[in-house]
Amino acid sequence: MAKDKYDFIQELLENKKLKPAQQERILMLTKEEIKKDGIFGKELEERVKKLEMRIEENKNQEFKTKEKTTPILKKESVLPKYVASKNLWKFLHDYNQDKILKTTCHEIDSNELKNILEFCGTNEYNFQQHQQKVQEHYRNHFFDNKKYFVDHKIKNLILYYLTGKTYGGASNGWTDEKIKFNWNSEELKIWSDKNPNLVPHPNDGFAKNQNNNYGLMLENSIKVHLVKDNQSLRYFSQIVLYFKSLFHIRFENSIFNIIENCNKSNHWADKVKFIVSEDTFPKNLEFFTNVEKLIQAYKILINLIIEVGKENNLVQPIVELKLMETENGIDFSIHHINSIFKKSVNNTIDRKGTTFTNLIINQLNGMCEFYLKADFGNKQFAEINIWDGKKSNKKELDQFNGVEYILKFKKR
Amino acid sequence: MIYLIDDKKERQEIDYNWTSEKLQKHQGTLVPVYTLQQIEELGIGKEIFNEGNVILLHESFFDNITNRLQKNSTEIRKDLNEHVSKQNSWVVYFSGSKSSRTNSGKIAHIPVSILYKNLEMFIEKLQNGDINLDYILFGSNPKIENELSSKLEISNDNFDDSLINTNTSNFVFQTEGKQNVPIKLENAVKEQLSTKEDYEIQSSDTFLNELISRFLSETKFDNIFIPLCFGATLSDFNGLRLASMIRCTKSKNQLSNIFIYGFVGVEYIFDNEYFNILKTKNVELIDYKKASFKTALERESDPLTIEELPKEISKLKLEVPDHYEDNHSIANEFGIYQLAYNAGIDIKEITDFDSEKLNSSFFKWLIAKNGLFEELPKEIQEKNNHYRVQLQGIKIIDKIDLSQFTKK
Asked: What does pTM read for this prediction?
C-alpha cells in the first residue's frame, strides 16, 4: 500500500504542469509521510534526493520565465542548487567597469560624456539615446549572458533600476525600500525633454558647464535607510550613487559604517554588546556583493543570537564582528562569544534547520559561502561548511569559544 | 612633492578649471600625471613613492585601459595603502562616484569636486610645512567645516519637503549644488547662489551685489530667505553678509523681511563680523526646518521704514577692510562720496573715484548708516541750484606775463 502511495507522489512530482513551488510543497509533505511510515530505506531516500535536485534546477530556471517574489518561508525548505559567490563578484565588478554601464553608477563629467557620445555614435548628448543604449547593453551583455551565472535577484534589481520592470514584468520597485524611480521614469523623460542635450546626473564640476544645472531634482525625494539612516535622495545623481553603494563596498561605503547604521536603527545596543574595532574590521577593504542581502543576512543572524539568548536565559550576548581579507576574497565573521551552539555537530550537518535553510535560499546562495565554527557542548568543538557547494562536513577543533558565523565572499 | 594622478584631463581642465597655466603655477610642488606612459617617460616611477610625498590618485586610474597593469586597481590601491602606512607619505583617492569625505590620517577618500576645490589651499599649507589631509577634505578650517558639512547633510535628510502654501511673495536663495535647502514654497522665486567662476568668487561682494541687482531690483518680495552658509567655506557664514548687503543696497527689497535659515545656533556665529545684522529690525535667524519657514511666513511684523534704516544699520559695526591703508584713506574717499552726494552729483561722473568700491559691503554700510542713499530733499536740491549759479567757480580774466619780471 505504502509503495503505491510513493509511486503516486513520484508521478505527481514529475507532472510538468506543477510549478516548482507546488513541487516543493509536495516534497515537504512527502518527507512527513516518510517519517510517519517509519520507512527510510536507502532506495527511497535516493529517490527523494533526486527529486529535490530536479526541483531545484527548475527553480533556478524559473527566473528566466517568471518573476518570483520569495516570501520568508515559514517551514524548512529544500536547499537550492549551489551558485558560487565568485560569479556575483565578477558580474558586479564587470558592470562597474563597463564602458556604458558605468555611467549608470557614476556621475557624469567631461570625460564620461565623451565616452557616452562615442558609444552612442553621436555628437550631442541625448538622454533617451543614452538610456536605450544602457538598457540594450545590459540585457545583451549581462542579463542574458550565460557567462554570468548569478543569483537572479541582483540581475532583476539592476533590470528594474534600468527599465522599471523585472524580467517577469513586476513593477513594485527596486530594493526592499521599493524605490519606483528608475531610468525609465516619466519624470526623467519630462526633464530631458525640457533640458535637451543636458546630462541628468552631472558631477558638481560638470554641472557648471551646463549652466549650473545640477540635473534632475526629484519632485518628491526618496527616503532610504540601508547605508545611512534616513538618507534623502533628491537628485538623480544621488540615486545613481546610491545604486552603486548597493553593490560596491569600499572605504566611504564601508561595511563597518553600514553595520553601525544597522545596529543603531535596530536599537540593538541595549540587547547585544558589540565588539568592533577598526583594527579587526578595516574600512578600506573593497569588494563587490549584494549589500542589501548581506545586511539582511546579518540582521537574521543577530536576531538569531538574541532569540537564542532569550530562549535559554543566557546573559546579554557579546558579539565580536570581524572583516578579514583572504587570498580568495573577504571573510565576514559574526562571533557570539558567550554562547554554545544548541545542536550537536552531526545534527547540524544532517539538518540545516529552518533558519539556516531560509537564510541560504533567500540571502546567501550566490552571494557567499557560509561556515559555522562553534562550541557544540559536551567538549565538542568543530567547524562546519554549511554552504560552500560541497557536502557539509565537520573539521574538529581542539578548543573553541562561542558560536561563530562566517560569511565568505569569494572573488576567485 | 604632490603627485596628481588623474587620467581625466578634460574633467580637470573644463569642469574644475585646473588649466595648464594653473598647474604650471605650482610646478615646484605639484606634478600632474595623466598616463602610465608619462610616469615611465618622466622616470618618476620610484620617486613617487619617496618619503614625504602626497599622492592624489584618481580611484579608477588603473581601470583605464591605457593604464592597466598586471594587478587590478583594487590590488594596486591595497599595496599603496600598505606602502603609505609604513612610511611618512600620504595618499588621497578621489572619484566622481564618491559622495562623502573620509580621512584615516594617511589615507583619504574624497569626491573629485572637493579635491579640485581645496587643492590650491592644500598646496599652500604643504609649502609651509603643514601637511594635514583634512585641508584637502575640508579647506582651511577643517574641524569646523567637517562639523558643519555633516550637520548640513543631516538637516537636509531630516527636512520635510512637502509644500507650504502661502499668500505672501517670497524669494529663496539656495546654496549651490545638491545640498541646497529642499524647501517647497508656493509661488516662491528660487535662485541658487552660484557662479560659473571659481569658488572664491562665489561669495565675493561683487558677486553678491550682482545677485541683488539681478534678482531683487525688479520685483518687491515680502520675505527673502537666505542660507546662513554658502560659498567655498561654510564657516564664513556668508548669509549674514548677504543679508547686510541687501539692507545696505538701494533696491526694491531693501526693506523686505529677511530670514536667514541655518542648521547651527547663534553660538557658532557670535564672533562673525556681520552678526549684528540679526539685531536689526526684521532680520531673523530661523531653524533649517519646514516648520520654521512656516512660522516665519505667518509672522506679522511691523514693516521697516526707510527712516528707521540708518539707526538700525548703525547696530552693525564693520571694520575697515584690510586693503585700505588706514582710516584716513577711507575717510577721504567717503568724504568725496558725501561731497558729491550733497552736491547732487552722480559719483560715477567723478573720473578719479573708483566706483567699484561702492559695491563693497563696507562702503555700502557707510552709505546706509548715513542715510546717503535717499534722494536729497527738494528744498536742498533747490538751494544747491541757487548757490551753484552764484558760485560759478574761477574766472580767467587774463594771463600774467612773467617775462615782465626779472630775478633779483
From this structure: 0.79
